[in-house]
Protein: Endonuclease
Organism: Massilia violaceinigra
Amino acid sequence: MPEGPSLVILREETTRFVGKEIARATGNTKTVDLPSLEGQKIVSLRSWGKHFIIELPHTVLRIHFMLFGSYRIDERKDKPPRMALEFTDGSELNFYACSVKHIEPDLDASYDWDADIMSPTWDAAKARKKLRAAPDMLACDALLDQTIFAGVGNIIKNEVLFRIRLHPLSTIGALPAPKLRALVEQARQYSFDFLEWKKQFVLKQHWLAHRKTICPRCDIPFSKGHLGLTKRRAFYCEKCQKRYG
């Protein structure tokens, strides 16, 4: 599943489509009347967390890449697209294995931009307040809560918890104040590290915990499991990642 930094890259790569007119819209989505998009010009392209947002004069589309979604710009995959947009200048934007749906046009009412981990308006204090309001939440679930950390996915979760030496089964209410601050700060910092490494095509080279078998600090096997309410796979060290609560 693409995480927030990957959506920032998509947004940056598609900036040139703003203002272009859709000549043809096709695909196998059942949730959008694709022919109705034809003749409309792209008003804006935005991202929020793991959502890619296409604003048109008469509607707004939200694309969520789910677990296996992908996209291609000016090229196609050898599989049917969920939605393919061809523009009057010959360029094209193709989306695969994703969710496409109409959303309310008032984006400021639909989205809390301060919760987007990659947003310039990201509000760390607001994130801490939301966390303190959920003292029984597990750390592994907290990082994946899109109302608190929009854009954080499983890679960032595992790497942040390892970076700050926090056990994924720690409860938020049991965390000392410095550890809670570190959780919030590093969720954002690692997301921007992720962005730079992704752009340089070296992201996996920097993984210390995600999909790893041996702890690089303790030289012992990582524990693995599908933890928390989210049941997403966790990789963690029982020795150097302290469990609180």
